[in-house]
Amino acid sequence: MKERRYRSFLYVIGYLLILRVVLMITTNISIFNFGILFDLVLMIFWIGAFGFFMKKNNIQKAYYILVIVIATIFIVGDSVYFDYFETISARNSFEGLKWLNEGTTLEYSVQIPLVAYLITPLLIGVIYLIISNKKKDVFVIKDFGVLSIVFLIQVILFMSWGTYEFDTRIEFYRSDAYLFESMHDRSLFSEKYGYYNYHLLDFTRIRPRPDEETLYAEIDAYFEGKGDHLVNDYSDVYEGYNVITILGETLETRFINEILTPNLYLMQSEGLSFSNFFTPVFQQGATCNSEFMSVTGMSAISTNDWSNNICDSYSENTYPYTLPQQLKNIGYDTYYFHSGHEWFYNREIIVPRYGFDTVAFQEDLYEAGYDDFNERFDTDILDFFTEYVEYDDPFYINLLTYSMHGAYNQEEFHKYAERVEAAYSGVPLDTEVVNYMEKLVEFDNMLGLIMAELEDNGELDNTLFVIFPDHFPYMMNTDTYLDYIGVEEDSHEIMRQELIIYATGMTGVNVTTPGSTIDITPTVLNMIDSSLNFKYFLGTDLFSGTDNYILFSDLTISDGTNYLYLNEELLGNVEYYDKLESALEVEINALELQKKILIIDYFKMKEEE
Question: Both 195 and 292 in a single domain?
Answer without folding.
Answer: no
